[in-house]
Amino acid sequence: MMIELTSELTCPHCGHRAVEEMPTDACQFFYECEGCGRLLRPKPGDCCVFCSYGSVPCPPAQQDKSCH
User: Fold this and answer.
1) 3 state DSSP class of 6
2) What string of DSSP letters covers the chain?
3) pLDDT tens, position by position, 38-52
4) Distance between terminal CA atoms of the chain?
């Protein structure tokens, strides 16, 4: 299975979308929205902002590895 390294983040506050490259060795806990400036954090139970707001989950989650 090919691991996708980019994901489109969608801000839940303003709807701004941005395609971002994901780290391969860690989860990204914070992301500042380029549209409204709000700091996004993962939803409860998710390991990172890509798993919560991205079109593709983070690489560790894609590989079924524990990333909490």
Assistant:
1) strand
2) -PPP-EEEEE-TTT--EEEEEPPSSS----EE-TTT--EE-PPTT-SSHHHHHBSS--HHHHTT----
3) 999 999 999 999 999
4) 22
Q: How far is CA 11 from CA 5, 32, 33, 58, 59, in A?
A: 19, 9, 7, 16, 20
Q: What percent helix, strand, coil does the chain show, rounded to 5?
A: 15, 20, 65
Q: Which burial class, exposed, middle or buried, applies to 5 when counting CB atoms under 10 A from its CB (0-12, 13-18, 19+)? A: middle
Averaged pLDDT for residues 56-63: 89
How does the average pLDDT of the chain come out, rounded? 92
Number of neighbouring beta carbons within 10 Å of residue 24: 11
Q: What is the CA radius of gyration of the chain?
A: 11
